[in-house]
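Chapter summary example.
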Amino acid sequence: MTEVVIGVGASSGASAAEIGALIGAVLEEAGLAPEAVRCVATADGRAGERVVRAAARDGGFPLIAYPVDVLAQVEVPNPAEATRARTGTASVAEAAALHAARPLGGAPELIVQKRRSARATAAVAWIGPPGPDGPESLGKSLPKGHGGA
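The structure predicted for these 149 residues follows.
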């Protein structure tokens, strides 16, 4: 079975419904069912936002968060200087998806590059061949009830 990680970024004013709809849209674009999703990944600051937690929880997805300085080191195809100026990283969605997928498979690949809604972004990374560690080895898994599984 194809397994993926969805990276999510959100601006203030985003709703859980908007983020959930964007997650659904990128999964549809990839031709995948929600069961293919291993986790949703984002930046530390965004994981604490109620709407990001709610969108992950509503989809039944674990939520993994990474420090912005870690995401800033991930090479992405669509860096945004405006995002870097606001957050400290040129990518949240693509960088989080790739970074979370790496320890799960070792050779992640973006199968859906960054897509935007009015106040959110999402990207889908294929996990690739099996790897030795889970996403928790590099990030912070949120406890149950906070978007984690």
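To summarize the output: The beta strands are 4-10, 37-43, 63-66, 109-116, 120-126, 140-141.
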